[in-house]
Amino acid sequence: MALELKGKQIVITGGNGGLGGAVVDAFVAAGAVCYLPLRSTRTELRPGVEVLPGVDLSSEAEVTSLYARLPPLWASVHLAGGYAGAPFVETTMQFFLQQLDMNLTTAFLCCREAVRNMRRGGAGRIVNVCSKAALVPNGGAVAYAVAKAGVAALTRSLAEEVKSENIWVNAVAPSIIDTPANRAAMPKADASRWPKPSELARTILWLSSPANGLTSGAVIPVYGST
Question: Cα separation of 213 and 167, whole Å?
Answer without folding.
Answer: 10
